[in-house]
């Protein structure tokens, strides 16, 4: 029973990391990228998302609850995993270690980001807009904190996407897994660029 429960939890953890958490991450980065066009473009995109029907219900069901499970179980995996870097040192072992490390960094970043934006809006009524992010990123420390957080989050998603395809038996041959490695590297490069470009636009 314990083995079956762990098998189910790991599969659910993998699934939620892609659907819906990964999709939300990509959507969030796309909306933020409007900041590279103009403050007005970002505000319009952010306000569109804010005014979606049943927004609070969708956020809790599709984001907060899945994210809570993924985070809690991910911390358990991170602190119970056995890394074999010294013994093996293969590429995938490094990805295995970095996946867990970036998971912890991403969790810290998300908690802080939600506190500075969503909770600030809920508690103090602060509007979530371009000016809010510009004020946050005025601090050099916060700017680099966000850079590290965004890179960690995108890496965690991209590498987790590779693990998802392998875990669920979608890519089983060495050739397909090699192709997937390059595909997920492309995902990492594209969305990291979008995230960093957005932060620079806010900061400037």
TrEMBL record:
NCBIfam families: sdhC_b558_fam
Pfam families (UniProt xref): Sdh_cyt
Annotated transmembrane regions: 12-36, 56-79, 91-115, 143-167, 179-203
Keywords: Heme, Iron, Membrane, Metal-binding, Transmembrane, Transmembrane helix
InterPro entries, per the entry: Cytochrome_b-558, SQR/QFR_C/D, Succ_DH_cyt_b558_Firmicute, SuccDH_FuR_B_TM-su
Record has Heme as a keyword: yes
Name of this protein: Succinate dehydrogenase cytochrome B558
Domain of life: Bacteria
Subcellular localization, as worded in the UniProt entry: Membrane
Underlying gene: sdhC
Protein's organism: Alkalibacillus silvisoli
